[in-house]
Amino acid sequence: MARRGKTQIWPDSDGIMFCAEYHPEVTRKITEIYKGKFDEAHQSWAKVPKPIRDLWFNELKKYYWWEDHYELSIRHCFEERGKATMRDTLKEVRKCPTKRPKWLAENVWKDLWAFWNTETLKLKSETAKKNRASTTGVGSSLHTGGSIPTNVHKMNMINEGIEPTVHAMFLRRHQTKGNKWVDEKAAAANEKYQQKLLELQATPVDDSHPQSPITPSYDEQMQLWIEANGLTKRGRLYGFGVEGDTYTGSICQSSSQKRVTAPIMHEAITTVVEENKRQKVLLDDVQAKLKKERTKRKKQSKKVAKLTKATK
Questions:
Q1: Residue 50's CB: how many other CB atoms inside 10 A?
Q2: How many Å apart are CA 192 and CA 223, to the nearest integer?
Q3: Contact (Cβ atoms closer than 8 angstroms) between residue 247 and residue 223
Q4: What contacts 29, CB < 8 A, 6 or more positions away?
Q5: Residue 169: which of 152, 147, 188 has the closest Cα?
Q6: Rounded Cα gap, residues 81 and 76, in angstroms
Q7: CB–CB of 162/192 below 8 Å?
Q8: Other CB atoms closer than 10 Å to residue 285's CB: what's the count?
Q9: Cβ distance 30 to 60 under 8 Å?
């Protein structure tokens, strides 16, 4: 892959988002790419034929490069971000039925609305709206994080000197500036988690240190969150967006599978933790190589400068 004039990127440790430094930029570029080549009435990312998605991915390669061993991970990130942003993009289009966006050709726009206006889709939309507002869900899933992904929130918090614990992350995305919860669902989820955390911290580490509270790692905190709040009917983890899929493995629950047992969940989380460690080792290796290369270039620049000065 030619690298001149391109920005190097790599997957975040979760393997489903780009590195935090460039995630927003790359996500915007993906949106820009498919908007510029939206030649058919694709109702969702999943409806886009793979050959077209391949073309869009190759277009991304014109602006960014990555190590060969990241090819599959970057493609996975591309698919995940494309799916999420296209959903939001088309949602915005549907808000204005009388105004066609400039990036949509008129015939494509009309074809999309012909699909959206079908009675079957209207019925599905109304059903979904009722489900989101049902008492079992304690209202719809609201948050204040905007389109900023969790890994970027983490990086921002670290830069602000705030430890990105699960609790702190949830507060950041589900409380307003006046420290008010966005809805009852968020408040209830937080209360359940806090209760689980207190129960864990009340457990002595061992007999020799009966008063020493347990300080769980971030991955262990996520496990507690899952134990406290479970998964949605679609197997998603409430409150943590795409990052939640890392810990649940996007486990879809059927009507007969009302809950994921603790042993299975523990095994899934252990697998994720090991994968995160592996990704970190790979990232550290890349950063070390980059540092070595920068040092080498500096030395070469100094040599060139000396030679230039000597010839004058």
A1: 8
A2: 13
A3: yes
A4: 60, 63, 64
A5: 152
A6: 9
A7: no
A8: 12
A9: yes
The values of phi and psi at residue 158, to 5°, are -60, -40
Residues near 84 by beta carbon (within 8 Å), at least 6 away in sequence: 242
For helices 106-116 and 71-95, what crossing angle results, to 10°?
80
User: What are the sequence ranges of the domains in the chain?
Assistant: 7-126, 150-205+217-271
Amino acid at 90: L
Burial class (CB in 10 A: 0-12, 13-18, 19+), 244: buried
CB 136 within 8 A of CB 188: no
Q: What CA–CA distance (Å, rounded) separates 229 from 247?
A: 13
Q: 298 with 291: CB under 8 angstroms?
A: no
CB proximity list for 59: less than 8 A, separation 6 or greater: 33, 37
For 175, list phi and psi in degrees, rounded to 5. -125, 145
- Tell me the average confidence (pLDDT) per consecutive run of 10 residues in the chain, 312 residues long: 83 76 90 96 95 96 94 92 94 93 96 85 67 46 56 76 84 81 86 86 61 72 86 74 59 38 51 68 78 85 81 70
Residue 7 DSSP symbol? E
Rounded-to-integer distance, Cα 16 and Cα 79, Å: 9
Burial of 150 (0-12, 13-18, 19+ CB in 10 A): buried
Residue given tokens 């955390």 in the structure block: 197
Q: How far is Cα 76 from Cα 62, in angstroms, rounded to an integer?
A: 18
pTM of model > 0.70: no
Q: Please identify which residue in the block is written with the tokens 């030395």.
A: 299
pLDDT at position 104 is 96
Of the candidates 267, 246, 277, the one whose C-alpha atom is nearest the C-alpha of residue 77 is 246
